Amino acid sequence: MTSPDRTTIENVLRHVRTTDGTASVADLGRLDAFMLRDGVLHVAIATERGHAPALQPLLPELERGLVHAVPGCTGASVILTAHRATPSPAPAPTAPAPAGGGHRPLNLGGGAPKPATGPLPPGVGVVIAVASGKGGVGKSTTAVNLAVGLGLEGLKVGLMDADVHGPSLPRMMGMNAQPEVRDSRLIPPHKWGISAMSIGMLVDEGKAMIWRGPMVMGAINQLLGDVDWGALDVLVVDMPPGTGDAQLTLAQKTALAGAVIVSTPQDIALLDARRGIAMFEKMNVPVLGMVENMSYFCCPNCNHRTELFGHGGARAEAEKMGVPFLGEVPLLADIRASADAGAPIVIAAPDSAAGQAYRALAHTVAGALRRLLDKKPKTTNEK
């Protein structure tokens, strides 16, 4: 099925207006991303939080207009990514440039490396990691849906793919174009309400990143320091599996506000998740909680529930280790299909069991992040 024409969708946004006729959807927001899947057109509109009350009543008319205007569209689902105003960032503390500059595998031009800018990228409120002790437990899927879900909660969000050897973010977010380089800094693409950056956007999808530890650490340093993230409430970092160089680099180079640990219910996965929690505790990084992914499978034909990998293991482990349990995510074919299609399940099927589970996870984490942001010292412009 061919992709819908962007101009057609934008014309519908200009046509649908408020009841008093003073503004159109296009005046109050902008088309952020869209995808046609199984006849349903999924559309994300970025807007300011103050415009959301005026836009919300227009969504039914907008969805009807999209169905009428877009060929092959039998249904439409429109979401608003309405963000709160982000305070002006405080000036970053200066620090001497590291001797030699270390490995810089991403050639962005600009000569010598810039001095370190402190424990957080400029303009970023907090940084959190999504991690797991082993691969294959759905960590990247959780990171993507958590980040987009946080955007739907009203936060300004960036998503950084620190899995240098296995970058999956571009495919899961439907980001195909290379990012722009401006003044020797990468400009992260924006889609589904968030900004995102991955080394997978800079290399061919089939190319293997055969790098030793110093090159991996250098790439993570550049993704933190050489990307113009702009003003964000939170930067979500999708970590590689394990407890090695990437995790140490991130903890040493930036002030992690917390970590979300992803595991499946079976004992072997929980064993590795336990090591991940212990690693973050040794690095004095708070563990925000634990998520049980692939918690159960429901047959799409008869709705029979099967606990393929056991059930409740992550909840019991969280209680044992004294960390919050953040919820269960089922094993559904829609999660795989939406990831392959480039739209997170919170966008592609928000009313599904998985979509609701990820939204609940994002709501819980957003509450914790807002409390952290409220405790941060205000800048002069906010006083």
TrEMBL record:
Cited CDD domains: Mrp_NBP35
PROSITE patterns for the chain: MRP (PS01215)
Keyword Hydrolase: yes
Entry superkingdom: Bacteria
Amino acids binding ATP: 133-140
Biased composition (Gly residues): 99-112
Coiled coil segments of this chain: none
Transmembrane domains' residue ranges: none
Region annotation Disordered: where it falls in the sequence: 86-117
A GO biological process held by the record: iron-sulfur cluster assembly
Gene Ontology MF terms: 4 iron, 4 sulfur cluster binding; ATP binding; ATP hydrolysis activity; ATP-dependent FeS chaperone activity; metal ion binding
Keywords on record: ATP-binding, Hydrolase, Iron, Iron-sulfur, Metal-binding, Nucleotide-binding
Alphabetized InterPro entries for the sequence: FSCA_dom_sf, Mrp-like_CS, Mrp/NBP35_ATP-bd, NUBPL-like, P-loop_NTPase, YlxH/NBP35
Physiological role: Binds and transfers iron-sulfur (Fe-S) clusters to target apoproteins. Can hydrolyze ATP.
Quaternary structure (record): Homodimer.
Entry similarity comment: Belongs to the Mrp/NBP35 ATP-binding proteins family.
The protein's name in its UniProt record: Iron-sulfur cluster carrier protein
Organism listed in the record: Komagataeibacter rhaeticus
